[in-house]
Amino acid sequence: MEFTRHTNSHNQRHDDPYTSYARSNSERRSVASPSVTPRNASTVGDDDNAFNFWFLDLSNNYSLQLRRPDPKVPVAQTGASVYYNDSLFYSRLKQVYRKGFGDLVLQTFEERARMIHSKWVKKPNGESDATPSLTDLPRASSESERASLLDQLALVLDFLSPGERPILSVENCPPSPSDMRRLKRSSPDEEPGPSPTSKRCRGFTSPLKSPSVLSRLDHGAVRASTPLSGSPVPLAVRDVRYSQQHDANGPSASVNTSKSSLALSVFSDAEDPQGSALPATQETETSVVAANSQKNLQPLLRHVPDSRAPETSFNEQHDLSQDATQFAANDTLPNASQFDLSFDSGDKSILQDDDIVDPIDMISPRKLESRNATHRMAFEKRLQDVWPTFPKSLQNAPLAVRWEIMRLALHCGTHMDDLRFLNEPIPNDQAGLWKFLGRLKAFEGRSFPEKSKPEAWKAAMSDHFRSVDQAVVFTASLAPNLAKDGPLFKLSLQPLRLDLPHRLDRRFGSDRFLELIIPSLHTKDMRAMRKYYELDVEDAIISWLVNEPHVLLGRVWRSFFIKSAAPKKMHKDDTLRPETITILQERIYLFAEDGNDFSRTEVMHAISPRSQANTARTKMKLEDVLDWLLQIKQNKKTRQQPVCKLFSRIALGLSRTHPSVVLQPNQIRHRDEDIKSPAGKVMNDGIARMSSSLARQIRDIMGLDDIPAAYQGRFGSAKGVWIRDAEDTSDEIWIETYPSQRKWICNFEEEDHRTFEVRGSSKELRSATLNLQLLPILEDRAIDASRMKEQVGQFMKDSLIAEMESQKEAMKNPAHFRLYVHENSAPQRRQDRVRLGRLPWACGLPISREDQMELLLSSGFDPTKLEFLRKNAFKLRKDKCEELQTRLNVKVGRSTYAYMVVDVKGVLEEGEVHLGFSSKFTDEQSGFSETFLHGMDILVARTPAHYPSDIQRVKAVFKPELGLLKDVIIFSTKGDIPLADKLSGGDYDGDIAWICWEPSIVNNFTNAPVPEVPDLFRDGVLRKVSETYEDLARSCRSNDVTTEWLDQAFRFNMESNLLGTCTNYKEKLCYSRNSVRDEHAIFLSTLISNLVDRPKQGIVFTERDWDQQRKILNAKQGDRRRAKGRLDPPQPQYKNNDWGGLGEPTHIIDYAKFVAGKPTVSRELEKLDRYLGQAEHYDKDLVTFYEYFEKFKRPRDLRMQEEAVGKIKKTTWETVLDELKRSIDEVATHWGDSRDEFEIKRDTAYDKWRSIKATHKVNSKTVQSLCETSLEGIGLSQWDLLKASYCFKMYYKRYPSFPWYMAGYQLAFLKSIAVSQGGEAPPVLLTPEMYVGSRPDAKFVRAVAALNDGRRFEQTNEEAEELVSLSDQDD
Known about the structure:
This protein is an alpha+beta fold. The strands form 7 sheets. Strands 1, 2, 3, 4, 5, 6 and 7 form a 7-stranded mixed β-sheet that branches. It is globular and about 100 Å long. The model is unreliable at 1-45, 72-84, 121-135, 169-368 and 1358-1371 (pLDDT under 50). The protein is built from 49 helices and 27 strands. Helix 2 (17-25) runs parallel beside helix 17 and helix 41 (1212-1233) crosses helix 45 (1278-1291).
């Protein structure tokens, strides 16, 4: 069943008025309001772009919600406006701006606004006798306050343009209450008009829409004119009496709006008449709650309103931080003080208290609609307030500095308006910046967050916002604000970090991209919010995210891509029922279209020039970025792709990769057809070849030891794996692509599209673990299931015992244990070292536990004697054991993981595979040691595995023609179905296979045929959105197809993704039924296989659909009682910590965990703990240095005697050491009292630690000599060593880890000196680059261990040959 897009947009808008409202609302706010008055940009001339920027600032600074008229919509089609004729404000402001009076308007309006603001600011805590506290800006927080401000603006404009039609005129008056009642009684066809005798005057024309709909601040496309529900909206009208008498000095106003100061309590109980959330002066409009897409089968991809706002009004603008110098220099312009805008004392006020009409009293028959409108407006304002304003004084600061200041302010809960810099120069280095901010009053008593890494900060301060091979990444997150008011989400900025760049980074600059993490909209908090507001909050949030520009740090950002982010784990500390809550998250990518720090060039380019500095970016539309990447406009074939599939292609431009060789167009070979089977199946899906010379060049750029057989990468529109052409021995550079690799039509003209981007490469293979998902299939396909189960359990026992014994043996000797730590480290550790060129370091020690242990071991510490080191060693093993028990990954020596590639030469027969190793593959337990597999059956699989046929038994053969392709498994291209397709629908674009040649497993396994799977689309279980981009463009009434496309794609991708839910359910059902191959298991496997590609294929499967299927499946579970009640199957026993079933475990995973794994882990950890014994925190070698200086103090008894007789003057060293003790105590107290996260506590304490200097209370050259500059710069001055030694002596017992994290490096240095005393060689210092590149010599370590054990050390043949060769050279 095809699920296509609804085409009747008019009907849809009326069926779902809130959707129309939300989308119209999405363009309301284009820039965040700065905390100061609008910038002085008034210049005489016709620069519409400059005026638009000025207009936006004015509107946003005071929350006026003004809009620009849409030039594409004729006036006749816009409908009658309601409260204010916004277009009059736009045109009149434009006139005075062109005359050069822009700054005068700002100054005069600010004075008038502050005057009335003082009368309606909120009083603290609602106390009647409390003195109101004025905020920095008179911003409107309700519709009545907005109306008051517009009154003042109209007065100013009418005075400055006396020849124009007044905005506050009788013809623009609102209808009176009697007019409103008459309108309510009139027929729908009767056209209402203003009362000619009404004295109320605020530009009213008709009551068709409220200000929340009509007064939208957009960027050129107005959506407020979109028709809403047919019924007129009841209005709360205030009696505004306007005096038309003007004295010679101009108009005046005296406003009293005290009633409008009522706070909007949006979270009040809507059912409580005493606690109504409605403010007394809040205008309202009708609202109809949109139906949830889960509750009906209307298309998920809905039309949005007719017009769009494709670009901001930030076009060629001066910097926002520009002050009034230009205006001040022109002394011919009038000054605001020259005008008297006050009425005579006898004039009436424009607004009297008794003129305010309570909207609830006025429209009591429509309380529900009133409450909905009020809630909607409150919700809208909370969304607008998510992005904080940014001080004008900081807009010239470097982008990284701006990011850091706002990050700290958000973390500390400090409002940006509260930061007072007093024109002080702001440091650009991170340490100086933090010290500078720490002195500000706004940050007093606040703890700061984790710092950005120094290398990330350094890269961010460079011109191109990147290091040599990595880009700086901006990451922010939004968390639901559970308070009753304030922003809907709490924004937090993450520390700057470095990561591999993606293609868009490299082309346009990583500073133009922001990654925003938000919680899934389908959470309990969102449901509660929907219930309270009686709105489709998900729709409103998506509209806000996608359709609105977002102003942050002086830049205008737009969302353009979304994908699932890693779930967030939250631990609920409940003593009765502790639990871990998983919160699903989304990652949204935003692009900076424009900004205050962008260059304003005379010549505008659609595509920004290459290699711009981050301080010289130029404006660029998001539409042009996406067209540069996907080349949509140029290629009809690309436009014919489905909406969801084309959207998913953006991910290729965001893949973080290593850029390597740039190829020329004549070096690219595009193949017209894939390799196909007789049945028409593509046999090389995702794979192609490259020349050996190209592979060699990529190796050199990547710094690899050898030329890999395969690279996984991206190249233009192609993605997949490229293998070396083993027969190519020329120096020619070339690459080929196949249709299955090319995801859109790319012209490969730009250099960035011709850069081969490396995602990964084949590596030396190691023994692998058996994934949990494979165990039930192995048991199902076993010839003898009991023997398979016992064998798997035995592998777990053997691997645990072997690893434990290996660690115990290694810990006998520090050098041996260092080798053990090195060999058992994660591959990421080496990658971090290579990237940085040094150890990743934090405070007094390296960051990783393994690097900490290696440093201490290299310095002479014994892991069985020093408790800090012993504890780390025990944790290392315990964590590995717990990970094994949790993930249940059983290590099988004769198994590995490798990239899947194909035999393009056609030498392999169907059912044959080739696997060769670049070095001897050795399994010590079985004694296997070979360089290739030949003449044996092996198992191949790919995870996730669901069908019984997802593990295949095939024949491994060695083919000399394929001998150069090592560390990859090569599949045949013969047969009807590619082998990868049999492995849970895999392909060759980077999929990795599990390969096993363990005889006890392989020989007990038999293949299952590929099952007949149900057609879930034909059966109506799944549906598909089949609309193409071209269809969308044809039916879209807006010129901005890009925004329409992104809006639909975001809405689809933000629907509930049930892949994880269905996978977990299948695991429970198959466990309950003890089967992976019955019809219900096959149904669920098919469902899951489809949902894997849901985002790309546009597959629709809702919560309601899943509920229907789950009810059917629940009746089929093994537990009859639960089946009768249609209850979900229980969790498998292996999900629990302890066995709770009846009898002995029978399921293969239960057996592996509770019979084999858990008892073995407990027993072996206990043995290891006993073996390590009780080490000590104290080490005498570390206090010797302090004790040397302590001798300079008077003996304690002598000091006490002299103090008793009144001689209290301290000696120099007593003063120095006492002051040092006091300083260390202060840092230690902070360490003990801090409740921050460990990293924050550590970093804050270390900052205090580094500030401890020798006291100035003594004037001694001897003391000054302790702080020799060059040694102090690397932390090895006498003063640094004294601090470390004294700190260890004082706190080794009370806070055992404190001295290590403050001075671990200095303590290691002191230890190396102590253990080297009396030796024949001194300790050796290495530079950071040399140390990070050094590694333990395995042969040396094993030789020394053999000699220490009294065993004879036998040289290998290779070593003997090397010695003979050297001897020959000497001769």
